[in-house]
Amino acid sequence: MEQVGRKTFDEVMVPSYNPAEMVPVRGLGSKVWDQQGREYIDLAGGIAVTLLGHCHPRLVAALDDQAHRLWHTSNVVTTEPALRLARQLVAATFAERVFFCNSGAEANEAAFKLARRRGHVAFGPHKHQIIAFKDAFHGRTLFTVSVGGQPKYTQGFEPLPGGITHLPFNDLAAVERAISDDSCAVVVEPVQGEGGIVPAEREFLAGLRTLCDRHKALLIYDEVQIGMGRSGSLYAYMHYGVTPDVLTSAKGLGGGFPIGAMLTTAEVAQYLPFGTHGSTYGGNPLACAVAEAVLDTVNDRELLAGVADRSRRLKEGLEAIGRRHGVFEPARGLGLLIGAPMAPAWKGRAKDLMTLGFKHGVWCLVAGPDVLRLAPSLIIPEADLHEGLRRLEAACGELVAEGARAAA
Ligand SMILES: *Cc1c(COP(=O)(O)O)cnc(C)c1O
Fold this sequence. Notes:
alpha/beta, seven-stranded mixed beta sheet
């Protein structure tokens, strides 16, 4: 095989990413090894995706088994893995109907199109306003990026789809002022992920529920990042005790195999009748077989209790590092989606810390310029968690030492 490395990226790839120097070639559990054989503790989880770590034996077995049966059919027919997964999702959640696709953006695209179509058909074309929140992230298709609340992702892509209102997150009074009978949906991440790991307040979600009911708008939860056990509940709506009409799931759902799903009620689902929406790959048997094994494994009392336990350890570890090095403010987040905001003196340096982390053998993420984000496997072993924090502390030490040198 031809020799390739990080340098090759700049020669053959569209420059929309700027990947790290290290190129991973193998993963097992919460460890990853690069081309040079260097080991990294994975606290990033492929951006909250590999929620059972790398090469989990149950997922490998499910994929291998399905790989020898049937790979792809299209939706001209249905398949057993898709039907089984849908049945399990319906049994485990508020949902009565499921639509499968291949990513978080596609799941949200389906949800927004469903909300629009329901508005048109059941009430009339005036009912099309979508209320969304500043700093929200819902994907990178033109519709989802427009509903998202981060202008840097839409600049240069105009004209954008209209009828979308962006309001401050956790500000119920603002929603009360903006919502009307022309609103078809309110879409919210129960924990804003890309926007800096900011949990919604329970009263905020409960208030959105009431306002949506009053104005016959759909309440849509984007649980692409926080869903599938990461919150410590199977879905975060269960943690909050406020149920949406539509929920989108992806990332962790496939544990590393691409799949997305939109969950809803039978009543709402009727607004996407035959021919109104679709996807060639949606419900792909390989993806559904893996996701079935993920759901089977994650929807387990003991595993979910372990998430809360690891969450506490990780937050305590981050706070101890913050106390010793002064780089972090108190950690925030829910379950194993954790943000460590950079202290005022280190604002804008989260990416630099992440890069130093790679140097010290730990793989972290950022959520914007000011927040270090951790989204490890839900079953990360205690020893790896401990070692990951030790390496992160070494990276913090180097960041502080560099800062001191620069100031001298
Ligand atoms: C990652 C993410 C998406 C987009 O998912 P893709 O699979 O990248 O399309 C949407 N919403 C949230 C909350 C996300 O974190």
